[in-house]
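Design request, tokens follow.
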């Protein structure tokens, strides 16, 4: 992930990546993590993608269905139940200001209601 983002800062405009960690090679950064980082830190990276954030969750689920490989519950960006592992103080902070702990709101990723 760090190498991919450093490459973008250095001028690279194509990154080989995976979805849900599944892809051509082990060790490639995940598309969902790269896209969110580039979106929420767009001013820092100076690039814009045409990738639709609201399609990432559905794409992740589709790939999981096709491959039979479940998304780990703690997977960044596309985990179905990330809030179940947060301590109570974190939940209170999220209720007061979600961006304190979540750099992107779940509704921007088109999570189904209740997640």
């Amino acid at each position: 992930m760090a190498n991919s983002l450093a490459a973008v800062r250095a001028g690279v405009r194509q990154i080989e990546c995976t979805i849900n960690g599944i892809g051509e090679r082990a060790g490639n950064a995940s598309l969902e993590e790269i896209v969110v980082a580039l979106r929420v830190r767009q001013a820092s990276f100076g690039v814009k993608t045409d990738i639709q954030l609201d399609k990432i969750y559905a794409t992740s689920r589709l790939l999981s269905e096709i491959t039979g490989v479940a998304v780990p519950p703690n997977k960044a960006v596309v985990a179905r139940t990330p809030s179940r592992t947060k301590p109570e103080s974190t939940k209170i902070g999220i209720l007061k200001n979600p961006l304190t702990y979540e750099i992107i709101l779940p509704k921007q990723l088109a999570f189904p209601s209740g997640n």
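Comment from the thread starter after seeing the answer: thanks! The CA atoms of residues 46 and 87 lie 35 Å apart.
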